[in-house]
Fold these 2 entries.
Entry 1:
Amino acid sequence: MERMQASTIREILKITQRPEIISFAGGLPAPELFPLQAFRKALNQTLVEDGVSALQYDITEGYPPLKDLLCGWLARRRIPATPDRMMLTNGSQQALDLIGKIFLDPGDRVLVENPTYLGALQAFNAYEAKYSTVPMDAQGLLIDQAEEKIRKDRPSLAYLVPTFQNPSGITMTRGRRMAFLKTARKHKLPIVEDDPYGYLRFSGETQPSLYSLAGGRGVIYLSTFSKILSPGIRLGFVLAEPRVIHALVLAKQAADLQPNSLIQRAVYHYGKSGHLERHIPVIIASYRQRVNTMLSAMKRYFPPSVRWVPPEGGMFVWCRLPEGMSASKLFPRAIQANVAYVTGDAFHANGGGDNTLRLNFTNSTPKQIEEGIKRLGKVFSEAL
Ligand SMILES: Cc1ncc(COP(=O)(O)O)c(C=O)c1O
């Protein structure tokens, strides 16, 4: 319990619920893009066509027709998947918890990007993990430093978000991916590749997943329907070697028996009718407009000493204030100006990062984004 802290983000979200505040703090998808009609139809179809089996207990691994459909969908994205290498989860967050359960003993180390996804730290903290943090540049993880940490700290697991990372928005280049795989293989280090955002690319070239580059060996791939359909349905999936899937299945049985029978069938009907393929480009077009509005407003309103790497997809822009400036100290002033962000320190597993912050662009309209960035620019300029 000592290590299980309340998520700073969820605490900040409470303050930012006030209607006058333009909030770039959360990580929520745009609710107006949820495919309400299509999903209602899929749910109705489930109850009519599948009947009572949609309300019955089911197997732990996941609903087989949905697994088959997903394997085909992933193959079209050049991610090789077979049903025996797949398990469905209650969101990717559950997969992180189950991975902690089967891989980590107290005091074991996890190699993570610095900054990294806060929810992963929360999940691994429950298993008393320690962290070896590795910085990134615009091309992703710094491989020399990763290798040094692996040699020195002997981590049990590497956890990476290589595509449109949360929080930094950075995507690892193909070269860095290959180099990291080589290093990890040399040291027999299992890799968790968390990829909730990879299907939301606005610009640039698609990068191959670590999982496909490794031919599925030594990499556990996680993804989710949260950002491409709805986070409220809580459905994600894991790809891994069959022996890892077997261990995860046992851990999931102990945790909650199985994924939701009704939701899996509804997602199956939704996907089978072609809605996944049709809907993702709609999300991408809308997010592209929002991120472009944000980046162009940042150029106009932020002082030149504030730095960022424009993301090619995902949901976040990461900002670095000049050294010595503190995003946490500025936070009350931002709230006074009716604009909110998440301070970057929360994403640093071993401390630091006080001059960084994360901006989300998917849960505000372009008009709000323009106004919110203008307000934030004023707060930063006055603090310089
Ligand atoms: C990197 C990363 N992993 C996992 C998750 C959790 O996703 P899910 O809703 O599938 O549990 C998130 C959600 O924000 C995320 O950003």
Note: The first helix runs from residue 8 to 15.
Entry 2:
Amino acid sequence: MRLLRSAFSAALFIWIFASVKPQHAGTASGFPRTVRVRLWYLQPPSALKLKAEPGQAKLRKCGICAEASLTLLSLRATGSQIQLLGETQSTTEIRVSGLYEASTGNGPPLRADFPVTIRSNQGKLLITATMPMEEYVAGVLAGETGSFKSDETLKAMAVTARTYAMHFGARHALDGFDFCDSTHCQNLRLAGITPRLRKLAESTTGEVLWYDGEPAAAYYHANCGGTTEDGRYILGNTEQRAPYLNQHSDTYCIRSASSQWRSEISKQDLQHALAAEGIAVPGKLRSVAVAKRTASGRVEFLTVAGTQSITVPGLAFRLAVGRNIGWDRMKSNWYDMRVNGNRIVFQGRGSGHGVGLCQVGAEVMGEEGRSYREILAYYYPGTRMGVSAQGTQWQQLSSEDVVLFTERPQRDCVLLPLATQMMHDAESSTGLLYNGAVKLKVYSTVAAFRDATGEPGWIAASTRGDTIRLQPTETLKDSSALDSTLRHELLHMLVESHAKPGTPLWFREGLVLYLSQADGVSKNTATFTNTDAVNRALRSPASEVELRQAYAAAQARVVQMITKNGRAEVIRWLQEGLPKQ
Ligand SMILES: [Zn+2]
Ligand SMILES: [Zn+2]
């Protein structure tokens, strides 16, 4: 599975004195029945052959062309055009539906009965299939759990895969599809779907694990090695409230075969692998040692020594080895090491990141007669399984750039065009572009907002990862804070998504305040002796007053920088780092 981009957390302070009235909405949330999947995502083909029995498949040679029947067709990508073999005209889009076979000349042909749209970009064919969610889930079972014996384990994995898909569904929204077919999303192997896998996926149709009214971040991995990892190590701060991903010991997988592994990597290969990921070791790499472990015992930070020592996060280290030397060389982050001449010897246990469901443990549970519900309850404690949201009943409205979650679409729908427009304005005023879709979650009561975010009631909004959580629309309107809150949080998303890792909080916060032209912020900036103190106050303010002062100090500092160096230059620093002082 993969890493998320760096986490951030921000909260806008405003004065709110709201009455708290519990409310409940009772409509079922929309469940996506079809998904759009980009096939051959990692290696898009430049040519494709399509074949069908007469009368079985249909073809459109452009978006608005009439339907013709498909028997045999060869395509080749040239630039952004698709060349049809034997025809002089080229086209930009082809649509196929019915029952057909598609082959790229590389690997077995795909026999499919779902519609595909084919486009071309830089001489590569971009092939997007629209398929039923349950077919996607069966394809993920084939790709991720091929050898499982227990039906109950496979059913647990089907629910996990569906939940994971729904949680992370907006990853490729900008490119016009939902999921790619690689492990970046979930490993999809359509050719490996068997009637058994299809039947097991369908027997759990629509079942999803819910937490806080949302599909859970249902991470899974091959083998935890005896203790799962706490979700925050791969989620960062983006999902602070994911207690179902807490670390716990796994009494099942340890009954299976040993998960120990050993691997030797030369210092030189290691240095090259790190360099390829932008981690420069000064001089020649001499040694590697663990600097800090997580509570489960996995490596959180390493010290890599050349002529000087640098600290490297364990996740980045494993990513570098995996991508550049091979994923089998460092199966997990749970290991010890020693230097042996010019080689480093790693000895470890487990396979994968260790967060969420342990596949080996789940298989042991299934073989011991546990039900898929028991397996899911063991690995995702505190989630609830159901075909619709439990507790909070989110409904989803979306524009191209914003996904709005609300319990009361009629009241909150005004936020969708408002947020979309504000994001566009923020993009054009900064020259920065937001990559992906912003999620906007509007709670229908102040109490629900507080429960879900852990923020006090005087915080108007809280932003984590790609989700902005807002107090009820009318609460914000009553305090005339709706526009300013929304603008502030959207600017945060934009600023954070472009911030160079390590950019100090006071600078990001001050820049957002400057860009949102916040007024009403206290001019009392005298209380902080340095930027570290401002950071501390922003991160964990002792009071509302202190937070207000910290905002003012951060803003004043950024305004000063902009007056001296110009706005464009200061925005550039966001992406490239602040100049040394
Ligand atoms: Zn993907
Ligand atoms: Zn395990």
Note: The longest strand covers residues 124-132.
